[in-house]
Design brief:
The structure holds 2 protein chains of 2 kinds. Chain A is of the alpha/beta class. Chain A contains 12 helices and 24 strands. Chain A has helices at residues 33-43, 47-62, 99-107, 110-117, 136-140, 148-154, 156-162, 173-181, 414-421, 427-438, 440-443, 448-465; strands at residues 25-26, 84-85, 120-125, 128-134, 144-147, 186-190, 200-205, 212-213, 216-221, 226-234, 242-244, 247-252, 257-264, 270-280, 285-292, 297-300, 303-306, 312-321, 326-335, 341-350, 355-364, 371-381, 387-396, 401-411. The longest helix of chain A is centred in the C-terminal third of the chain and has 18 residues, at 448-465. By secondary structure, chain B is an alpha/beta fold. Chain B has a domain at 8-89 and 164-254: 3-Layer(aba) Sandwich (Rossmann fold), CATH 3.40.50. In chain B, strand 11 and strand 12 form a beta hairpin. Classes of the chains: A alpha/beta, B alpha/beta.
Chain lengths: 467, 261
């Protein structure tokens, strides 16, 4: 493997990769009908899912690439492995996970985190979930937390009822691609009135070069229930690119509460093009807590459709773009019902020539009265060569609404730096502290273990940044 | 550390800001345990001295030397100076949004103190100092200087000084922007901290601060030079005559050149 200097990143600690010789299946490169048929057969899927996939393939092939957002011209759809199956089945015991995969997740601290503070864990390696476990007490309450493939096998009716209802196949080119080749992801159902107090976590790992990972997640929180789902992602550092294109659909039934937290830390050779959308019914709350620290290109705008009276959306999106990276992120809220409220807070940092864009949508439909919304986007640029843009879009078709929008672009001020250095902090530590503070609105929403980890990640990035 | 070495020795210090010479040969020595007051009108170079001592990059040193515990510090960055024991209480402390004062103090004590405290020891000491300075414990959970009143900012500066235990503390107009009650509280805090180990350089425009902080030595700074040094009698003179009497002694040419008024 040729390695160019750009690819040797000393500050990305997850850049290692495992040997692939024991894989049970690895598709050739490129996307064909035959591949999808073979994939679906291997998974033992019902006929309707195969037809769904094949239809989605047609849609994907017909749709043009998006003409807005980040530069995607580097994606070569012919040079991607669409389906890579490291082992045969998801297991509920770490002991049954192949040794090399277990070692990887050990290095990433997943089994330890599960023991300490998680209610359930899913670990996806390449295309398949290799480990899945949920705490017994939650299982007894009727909480379902499975990988999506098992969900389809074991609860076909629920899956069929909700699958692709929040994000239709034809929503965009990448939702169509995901619909055609999806594999893995999480399926969660929380019964009426059940509050899942401890987070459920999924961990996504890409190992192969030129891999495409297309997980599909569906979370349904029934009336009055609540759940917090956390996902993390890493990949090895390769000289050529991989593609991660997920579809995540959330349904919060009346009075339900879903919090979805992401700490995306892909290596800088991953295109991360994800469609995330939630439906919030009467008095339901959706919170997207979305952190984007890695990848080469990210395009992701978690969305909430407030379709029931009194529903609420809170989106916090943070992004950090270093050299060669473009984080095109933000959030979308569509107010369809009256008495709905939303906040979108976006914080982005660009450094070493990196680029961040805030892209957001706030829409209030005619007839949605007494809507309140607050949108704030702040960008911090650490040097002159970096770039930040905002593309806010606000469409209000109703008069009786209260909308606030604030935006700022700033640099680390000489006075802040001097102040911190006058207290003994060196330049890197001072800048890291300012950056941590800038992201605090995000960090403080994370469980403690994650906020500590996040601050450590930021520190690593900053140490790479300041000469 | 030798007890004979003065804490801070400034000799012939000349400093320019944006090409204009502000300090024009300043000499000053502060020994351990002494409190010095440096007084002067607006534009005399008080804040220039404070910022230069701390190593602000915008202040250009044209000549002279500053020794801290016997060691030249003029070539050093502000972080290294802080680590060597100099502390500046800022006239205008800036806000650091999202950074809790307690976390900031933890990082600062780590950076400046050779003996590392455990998290528990740190919290205990912070609580102690806050009690001593009669600062509400909840203060530590607020963002550094964010939304602080004038008085709160100055008290936070004094709290930092208490935690970092410098060998020399420079207080730049710690009295500015405070009403009389806030001024008394801050000054009492400073007095409580002044001890035999620390040298204190109090920079101020007004005499009123000196009703609460009692300096051993008083210096008058006019147009970048110390024109008189002595004891409390200087304060009385200033109270009676203001800075005018010192300005009169300057050659008219210099007044024009410096743009003083």
């Amino acid at each position: 493997m040729a390695v160019s200097p750009r690819d040797i990143t000393t500050d990305y600690k997850y850049g290692f990769h495992d040997d692939e010789s024991t894989y049970s299946y690895k598709s050739g490169k490129g996307l064909t009908r035959t591949l999808i048929e073979e994939m679906s057969a291997r998974k033992g899927e019902p006929e309707w899912m195969l037809q769904f996939r094949l239809h989605a393939l047609d849609v994907f092939l017909k749709k043009p690439m998006p003409k807005w957002g980040a530069d995607l011209s580097g994606i070569d759809f012919e040079n991607i492995h669409y389906y890579v199956r490291p082992s045969e089945n998801a297991t509920r015991s770490w002991d049954d996970v192949p040794e090399y995969i277990k070692n990887t997740f050990d290095k990433l601290g997943i089994p330890e985190a599960e023991r300490k503070f998680l209610g359930g864990v899913s670990a996806q390696y390449e295309s398949e979930v290799v480990y899945h476990q949920i705490r017994e007490d939650l299982e007894k309450l009727g909480v379902l937390f499975l990988d999506m493939d098992s969900g389809l096998r074991e609860y076909p009716d629920i899956v069929k009822e909700y699958f692709a209802t929040v994000i239709p196949v034809a929503d965009n080119k990448f939702s169509a691609l995901n619909s055609a080749v999806w594999s893995g992801g999480s399926f969660i159902y929380v019964p009426k009135g059940v509050k899942v107090e401890i987070p459920l976590q999924a961990y996504f790992r890409i190992n192969t070069e030129n891999m495409g990972q297309f997980e599909r997640t569906l979370i349904i929180a029934d009336e009055g229930s609540s759940v917090h789902y956390i996902e993390g992602c890493t990949a090895p550092t390769y000289s050529s690119d991989s593609l991660h294109s997920a579809v995540v659909e959330l349904v919060a039934r009346p009075g339900a509460h879903i919090r979805y937290t992401t700490i995306q830390n892909w290596s800088n050779n991953v295109y991360n093009l994800v469609t995330k959308r939630a439906l919030a019914y009467e008095n339901a709350t959706i919170e997207w807590v979305d952190g984007n620290l890695g990848s080469k290109v990210t395009m992701k705008y978690p969305a909430v459709y407030l379709v029931g009276r009194g529903a609420r959306a809170d989106i916090i999106s943070v992004a950090m773009a270093g050299r060669g990276m473009h984080q095109d992120a933000g959030g979308k809220v569509v107010h369809v019902a009256s008495d709905t409220t939303s906040t979108i807070i976006s914080k982005s940092i660009s450094k070493d020539g990196g680029r961040t864009s805030y892209r957001g949508l706030l829409k209030v439909h005619k007839g949605a009265e007494n809507v309140k919304s607050y949108v704030r986007c702040d960008a911090l640029m650490l040097d002159e060569e970096s770039r930040s843009d905002t593309y806010p879009s606000i469409e209000i078709d109703e008069d009786n609404v209260s909308i606030e929008h604030e935006a700022s672009v700033s640099k680390i001020s000489e006075e802040q730096l001097f102040y911190l250095m006058a207290r003994g902090l060196d330049e890197t530590a001072a800048k890291t502290m300012i950056v941590n503070g800038f992201f605090d609105v995000f960090t403080k929403e994370l469980p403690m273990e994650y906020s500590v980890e996040l601050n450590r990640l930021l520190q690593l990035q900053m140490e790479g940044a300041v000469g | 550390m030798s007890t004979e070495t003065p804490t801070l020795v400034i000799e012939g210090l000349r400093v320019a800001v944006e090409g204009k010479e502000i300090l024009r040969g300043l000499d000053l020595t502060v020994n351990r345990g002494e409190t010095h007051a440096l007084m002067g009108p607006n534009g005399s170079g008080k804040s220039t001295l404070a910022n230069t001592l701390m190593g602000h990059p915008r202040y250009e040193v044209l000549g002279g030397s500053v020794r801290l515990n016997g060691e030249e510090i003029l070539g050093l960055g502000p972080d290294v100076r802080a680590q060597k024991g100099i502390f500046l209480a800022f006239q205008y402390p800036v806000a650091i949004p999202g950074v809790r004062l307690g976390d900031f103090l933890r990082a600062a004590t780590r950076a400046t103190q050779s003996e590392q405290m455990s998290a528990l020891e740190f919290r205990k000491r912070l609580r102690q100092k806050m009690d001593m300075l009669k600062i509400d414990q909840a203060f530590a959970a607020r963002d550094v200087n964010e939304g602080f009143s004038g008085g709160e900012k100055k008290r936070a500066e004094v709290l930092q000084m208490a935690m970092l235990e410098p060998s020399i503390a420079v207080l730049d107009e710690i009295d500015s922007g405070l009403d009389i009650d806030a001024l008394r509280t801050v000054a009492e805090n400073v007095e409580a901290l002044a001890g035999p180990e620390m040298g204190l350089l109090v920079i101020t425009h007004y005499q009123r601060l000196l009703n609460y902080v009692h300096p051993d030595h008083i210096h008058v700074l006019i147009q970048g030079r110390i024109v008189e040094s002595g004891g409390v009698e200087i304060v009385e003179k200033l109270e009676a005559e203001g800075y005018e009497s010192y300005m009169k002694d300057l050659p008219a040419a210099e007044l024009v050149e410096q743009g003083a008024h």
